[in-house]
Amino acid sequence: MKKTIILLCLVALNCSIAPNSSAQVFFGSDDFDSGSSSKWAYSFRINGSGAINGALSFTNSQLDFSKFAGAGSQFRGWDGDGAGSASRTSASFTTSWVAELTTTNSLAQTGADFGTIGFQIAGSSSQYSAIMLGSNNSGFFLRAEGSGFSAVNAPTSDSTDVRLRLFWDATTQALGASYSFDSGSTFIGLATFNPVSNWSAGAATSGFFFELFGNSNAALAITSGSMFSDNFSVSAIPEPSTYAAIAGLGALGVAFWSRRKIRTAAKG
After folding, report:
1. Are 170 and 95 in contact (CB under 8 A)?
2. pLDDT tens, residue by residue, 219-230
């Protein structure tokens, strides 16, 4: 009987800390291996017009940015629940999360030309916070920028398979930007934003859009394989109370196992 009660307590505790899936439609991932745009419900451009002036294409198991002559860009919005519309939910404001994207930029630049590949969160068409891997005539760099925030640049000689990260702390309402050169084993902090205080009133509290982008003002064409992204993901960060519950669950399990061993030894 006591064993049954303990097991029921374990189940109840486990259920109590399980995430509410109906409020987490923005969580998910895409490795781009399928070549499908089904998880990217919409796209837009802020630089150039039409596919010839900027296209993020699902090719070669990655998201590739290319364009013909002239400035161009394309942004693609994340549809985490596959409902056919951009995933913006208030849960992305009230829940702590981490979003990551692996990027490569091998595009050499001259003069005032630049090229960037990265991702951002947005509260409206004019309120955003972004992290990107860029190149200009000085070389390659990591950049964090956003509305109401002074951009931060970090030069780098490594521009292949650089993992970019944005992470949101729902308690402090701070958005951090960092990057990794070793597949995510270690991250280097780049900047911290505060969308609530830097964006216009209410732009953050309704939740965030998640958007990938490629952008360049270079006059020459950008060919496939020069700038691309891979392995996008958005996942939850457990709240401190959840960690405590998990720790309690583990302690309860250890106690049950120890008591069972003692009883077994006594019977022997």
Report:
1. yes
2. 888 998 999 999
